[in-house]
Specification:
The chain has 269 residues and is of the alpha/beta class. The protein has a single domain, classed as P-loop containing nucleotide triphosphate hydrolases (Rossmann fold), CATH 3.40.50.300. The protein has eleven helices and six strands. Strands 2-3-1-4-5-6 form a six-stranded parallel beta sheet, with helices on both faces.
Amino acid sequence: MGRFHFISGLPRSGSTLLAALLRQNPRFHAGMSSPVAGMFAAMMGEMSERNEFSVFIDDAARQRVARGLFDNFYADSDAEVVFDTSRSWCARLPAIAGLFPESRVIACVRDMPWILDSIERIIRSNAFSPSSIFNFSTGGTVYSRANGLASSDGMIGYAYDALREAYYGPHADRLLLLRYETLTADPKQALAAIYDFIGEPAFAHDFEHIQFDAETFDRRAGTPGLHTVRPRVATENRQSVLPPDLAARFERDAFWNQPGLNPRGVRIV
């Protein structure tokens, strides 16, 4: 198996579009969020002291087993470079650094009000299909949905906290933040920066003909359109569906836009 890199960051911020573009390179494998991160967490738990047999497991064994998870999960791929996607990887940089010293993490980011707007639009477009995002609940309002998403264990809140942990942590040198606005307005620049960051030779991507299909997964999640990627990269100007007071609550959360809050010099594109 070849080299591993990781796609992480905030939801609804371009990770699926990025994967769809990267997989155009025949040397790369990339996709939507995979089960590897969850399997990794479960394995670490089972090899911890809560298991009475943990006396037979040291850190070297844990690393071999964890590395085996990656190698075996992607054993059918002949890609030289694998990008695994999960919002939780930002919270696991120390483990990533130990397992894959040459790996890098691409964290997709987007202004929080527009992430909430994007999710709310999907929920409203599937009015007759309760979503797994909210545990298939049929109640609530845009306010309660936003509060749940932004909580520390919510879909956005957890990813946001994990991102800040990585951004301000000792392994920040292996982190690149990719703004959604850059990816959609100037994908050529965005991909060039990523290739430079991971040390791979340039590749001519096609930004006018993009293919990605996750319809079956999205339908089972009760959220059709969740991972839909348009056939061409383009920006979209639209009016937010969020009430102004709700959007205003999250306007200052984009810490990556404030140079004074980047003490470790994380590269931001």
